[in-house]
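User: Sequence for Glycerate kinase below. Tokens please.
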Amino acid sequence: MMVGFCLWPHSFSSLSRQLWIQGCAERSGGMAAALQVLPCLLRAPSRPFLWGPPVARMSSGMALAEQARQLFESAVGAVQPGPMLQRALSLDPSGRQLKVRDRSFQLRENLYLVGFGKAVLGMAAAAEELLGQHLVQGVISVPKGIRAAMEHAGKQEMLLKPHSRIQVFEGAEDNLPDRDALRAALAIQQLAEGLTADDLLLVLISGGGSALLPAPIPPVTLEEKQMLTKLLAARGATIQELNTIRKALSQLKGGGLAQAAYPAQVVSLILSDVIGDPLEVIASGPTVASDHNVQDCLQVLNRYGLRAALPRSVKTVLSRADSDPRGPHTCGHVLNVIIGSNSLALAEAQRHAEVLGYHATVLSTAMQGDVKSVAQFYGLLARVAAAHLTSPIAGHLLEEEAKLYQLAAELQLPDLQLEEALEAVAKAKGPVCLLAGGEPTVQLQGSGKGGRNQELALRVGTELGTQPLGPIDVLFLSGGTDGQDGPTKVAGAWVMSDLVSQASAEGLDIATVLSHNDSYTFFCSLQGGTHLLHTGLTGTNVMDVHLLIFRPQ
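Assistant: Structure tokens for Glycerate kinase:
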């Protein structure tokens, strides 16, 4: 018989304990196996949480990884699109007015809906459930395969009803704009352009919306715009820089959709996947007036050495942009509302970690910068925090702390709570969990397969192995809340301080892997792929979640 790991918080109610036993049964091979573990736990002294019997304790690393997965899943669960939309949107008792926060809009069978993004399917399902007959027509653009994924996962609340008034287009496979997404964008544009001053357009926007709403300005083709975006991303362009170019070459981004819908009133409900929640950046701001001009675009292109290689069509569009007789887009008829973000996900993961017995602190919701520098930051942080937990202050610790603060300053993280986190670690009596969110960038230099979360985890694992961390288990997890890290089918990966020795034992060369940006292939090979974070498409997207967990041995 094989017994799995299960946590037993002694504060559980009788119902929670019953559910716990059922969960153990699922993970450990049946109810009999779960019940055999139970007496061992009931005899144990009361502590915040207890690890299983000796046979299970041999895989303590996997147990820690299971906890990390639970925390990640709790973060994703907190930003499911339906509940967030329901908190922002309601009908008054008469059913004739739509309330959005503190604003009201008259309903006279004049309501239309469009949407684009990884969380939009669930948002649209919740919206149609609420609005009923008031909704005349809708068009949404969502990731390829998401309906099948939601159905397979049993998430019926994320699916539209059989006779829905909302037309669904699936596209942007592997997060890249394609012909299917282009057809969706043109259908959305057509609906918007047909509206009148008596109409109300509800726009649902989430992360991934840029790739799902490609409508290049002629004569630029989809392939030309896609190639330029790929080149910029491969050279490490930030999301803000990418969106500056996208908006300049798009009919719908940078306020273009709002202009197409004029004179109808427009309400945009937005699930943010961008650091700081800037409205003009999320999905390239289709309902927000753009404040960028041609000079901004040229500066970005010059910065990455691409201006000379521009296709003739792109030069044509940029040359006439500043002389557009319509002038810049204005969006006075638009109400934009952020309904969810990374901070909400981290707050729930923090709460869940505390339930599991961790002292939990949120470091930042704005982790950004080159993945190499971010990995160095987490590596230094791990060494400093581990030293605080296992030994008194020493000269080498002060030196490491100085390096950590210097690197933090170089990363320019606007909301970093580093000092507070280190103080909390120093005072902690037991396991610690540091949480962060954001979206680092990867400069592609090889032709391997991977994503920023898997590459970050691999680089952090390498940093953790540079010197002994003392009698403490350290785990780092990085996962995309959308469930898809780059052009792969996983959300991310987790590592511990023994990653380098594990890789060496299996004949895997980490340096070669990193030089080819081949982190997915690496993690598939390492211990049979057990370090990969499999969630499937989650139906939401609020950037990435990072967990750095410390547990004294």
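The mean pLDDT is 87.
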